[in-house]
Amino acid sequence: MLKVESLNTEYPNERGEVVKAAQDVSFEVPEGKLFTLLGPSGCGKTTTLRSIAGLERPRSGEISVGDRVVYSGSRGIFVAPNRRGFGMVFQSYAIWPHMNVFKNAAFPLEVGARRIPRKEIREKVMRVLTAVQLDGFADREATKLSGGQQQRLALARALAMEPPLLLLDEPLSNLDAKLRELMRFELKRLQRELGITTVYVTHDQSEALALSHSIAVMSDGRIRQIGPPRDIYERPASRFVADFVGTTNFIDGEMLAAGRVRTSIGEVEIAAGELREGERVVLSVRPEDVELSEARPEGANVWQGRVDQKVFLGEFVDFQVKLGGRILLSRRHPSLRTPIGDTIYVCLHPEKCVAFKV
Amino acid sequence: MTAAAHALPRSFEWKWVVIGLCVALTAYIAVVPLAFLLWQSFFTPQTASKAAQFTLDNYAQAYGSSDTARLFWNSLQFAVGASLFSFVLGTALAWMNERTNTPFKTLFFALSIIPLVIPGILFTVAWILLGSPKIGILNLALQDWFGLEKPIFNVYSLWGMMWVDGLHYSPMAFLLMTAAFRAMDPSLEESATMSGANLFQVARRVTLKLAWPAILATLLVLFVRAIESFEVPALLGLPVGIHVFTSAIYQAVHRYPSQIGLASAYGMTLLMITSIGVYFVSRLSSRGSRYATMTGKGFRPRRIDLGAWRWVCAAIFVAYFLLIVVLPFSVLLWSSFQKFYSVPSWQALAHLTLDPYRFIFSYPNLGRTVWNTLLLSFGSATLIMLVTSVICWIVVKTKIPGRWLLDNVASLPMVFPGLVLGLAIMIFYLNVDVGVYGTMWIMFIAYVTRFMPYGLRYNTASMLQIHKELEESAAMSGASWGTTFVRVILPLLKPGLVAGWIYVMIVSIRELSSSILLYSPGTEVLSITIWELWENGQYVELSALGVLFILTLFVLVLAAQWLGGKFGVRE
Fold first, then answer.
1. Residues 6+ apart with CB under 8 A from B2
2. Are A57 and A45 in contact (CB under 8 A)?
3. CATH number given to A2-239
4. Considering only CB atoms, which chain A residues are within 8 Å of B472?
5. Structural domain spans, chain A
6. What pTM was estimated for this model as a whole?
7. pLDDT by residue (tens digit) across B380-419?
């Protein structure tokens, strides 16, 4: 459905230097799927989204939706953003303060190339307002809406013209934590119900994991890994991805034979991979995969450590365990109540230890 | 998907036509007269028999004589004196208003803006009627009370000029310094206090250091304005031979044969001085962002408790208001009911008459003059606000290379003293005959040029408030540039647009120094009529017109404020 091929976008910053914001970015989003561009600020995810929208003019590459090419560097095609017909929700929502709720949502239907009868506009607007549960607010001043309502209005406006593609630029980042969680479900439900192809930009990894069919992790203008949420989280392809998505423990080491790594905490058994003997590697182990027990468990990858510090966080407890001169973070159920300073056994399952080259 | 094919023929973009027109107009208006003035200052006057020749004579004449040294010295004295006087007055009032518990402050704030409505020429005339050694009411009254032989005040002097000009523009200093006081985050001062500094140390080491750019910028603005002031030097200086640059330019043009080359040379000098001033002001204000003391957090400045002294401050406010509004207006009002100008007395009170008003209403062409004034101010305010809205959109919202240049070009007329601008435009359209000389158009061009920077400032301030995504979301909704501009940008720009429109309207109605070189019979505006009445010595008739003029302007400002409030103008 959406196809982005070796997209390059750059722009001059305030000092006139060229910023290479997106470099060789390629991905495809199948019909009806939600695709997330995830990365830290300045990684090029917003630039990529804005290039798809037509708000930035790429330097080279190709962007097509279905069989319609909206940008092609080699063929000199650039469709203006207002002719692309994509829906977009901006980070600031960009609700026009001088129009009421209805007028905001009706705007895309009024200004398009096609003349739509007044009655039809009314019907369509009320339908999208109902979909985002704002149908009771049609006549309200847009400025009198709460943050969550403004966010939903922005969504309704983007959906009003029934776009083939929906672009969301950090739509939840301006909401407070509770509301953000609520809207996350809302958004997911709406996207799945309407089956609208969506590109979602966020720096919040939990948002990306919760919503997406597929995630692209970006840094420094490049895509580092593309995959379903579970893959991204459980099998990160690089140290950057492992570090950015979720929290993790990094353990430096050296490959011995296949499936064995020598580290500062001892030899660690890992699932077999393509890494060769003698290579410098980094192991990544998620805190929830660092198992702790007061009695020595059976099996491989077991070491004796000491509880150095612990933090009670309600639904779980974070343990910092001192092991072989370093600290491992472990996330456990609060039922484990080993006091600070006591001995504890650490167990790492080989398939949970992901290794990659330094 | 097939919609794209249908949309293609419409791809001709009006956007570039509008942008191109606005940029071309701005560049033409701002650059052409300046270039021509420069050119003219190096040439001899063109006559029927002799073509213009390159010469340095104008500069030689302008700089060769000791008169010029005196001219320069007079201008400097006058401008420094007037700007310092208005600065001290304005700052003291602003401090009292912002940082102390002087009673009735809000009322004073509203009242202190009124003087800006009174045109300079009327304010000057009023002070002549008050402080002239022969007919000045203040002089006569004080002489009478204290039995003095000699008059106490003499407005026909350098001191008198500084007094009148400084007093008239003190509200400007007041507004600028009020803004500076308001922008100062009191927590910076409070943290100095908490560090153990006393009131004096806080003032010297924190407050003054922080306010320094604002103080310097205010002083420079006032200086530039004073040096380009025309009404006061012309009315008070010329009769007693105190010449400054502006009055010298006026005389050079109105001499026979008129010495336009000499006027241009003077004009270039004056332009140089104001350019340096404006350059430093803009440097200061761009550097001011480093001193950005406004945190955006709502704060309530600490008010200094003056104790019993606050009544003294209140008294100062009252005295100030008397000097700047009540006395000048009363003296105009009084003389407007006289047959011949006379000092208030019981005898004169018996001779009150409405004759001056009858004279004014039967004044030939009064209707046309009023119509001209309204047409010019309405037209220039509207054109300026629309063109500058596009200009500042380009500057603020696009990444078009060279947009900073456009901003500077559009702000260029700021350095033109009104008289020099009038001169430049006059010279240009005398030489380039496109049929605007002697018509309303030439004055329209002058007004648009002169006040464009103000319109740009108002629009830019408002444009900066508009989040980029508000227009991007319109583009994503399928709106073309034109639709976005009309339906999203202009409505959101409305506060600045309306405020700027009102401001340009008012300053256009008051405009004298450009018009005085450009008007011709049939294209007079109200300020010119006042000038003519003054030249003819028709003081009582002038007073009657002045009273009507001030009252109308006042009503207009009130209406504008009411209108602005309705459209959500925040000032």
1. none
2. no
3. 3.40.50.300
4. 53, 55, 81, 88, 90, 94
5. 2-239, 247-357
6. 0.80
7. 999 999 999 999 898 888 878 778 888 888 888 888 888 8
